[in-house]
Amino acid sequence: MTIRVLVADDQGMVRAGFAALLDAQDGISVAGQAADGDEAVRLSARLDPDVILMDVRMPELDGIAATRRILGPSYPSARVPRILMLTTFDIDDYVYDALEAGASGFLLKDALPDDLVHAVRVIASGDALLSPKVTRRMIEHFSSRRPHARRTDPAFADLTEREREVLVLIAQGRSNTEIAGTLFIAEQTVKTHVGKVFAKLGLRDRVHAVIYAYDNGLVEPAA
Length: 223
Hints:
The protein is 49% helix and 13% strand. The protein has helices spanning 12-23, 37-47, 63-70, 93-101, 113-124, 132-145, 161-171, 176-183, 187-201, 206-215, and strands spanning 3-8, 28-34, 51-55, 82-87, 105-108.
């Protein structure tokens, strides 16, 4: 199955370079290119890509605002794309805002070509780009810097006790293998629990599970 990609970046040479690199890969096809966030929103609705490479800083509409529109309830397609944010900056407030908006990962623009191709494939597969340990460090960093009101999602009550344990362990940065060892259950059983947690809470991937857990006060940032 070919992964259809939309590249959104306001710098023409960067945009063309990413597109040429991805088009040359087996199983990846560049469906279109956008020069700003507004165009990315329009093309996403028309071209129905699997993955969008979205630059954080763009004129007219920035990448975070464009991500909110594309992943919002008014998006015209039932098959919502996965969004990989591109930035020239390392961890900062853009990261938290973008992930909160629904992006599935981050990649620095100076990443190696192989890293970009790998990131597109990971995002397209339905996973998040960030590893559990990186996710934990990043979210703890922002949780300690950005106070926000704790809330209790009514859907949380639908989780079984075991599913709640799994969610908390995900938020602590544990991999499926580590969760299996902690709870003394099979790794396949962990995968089943993770899938049920995501389905019940409407979560896209592990990154958003971590954000959910912090937002709902299930875990606290490290001191």
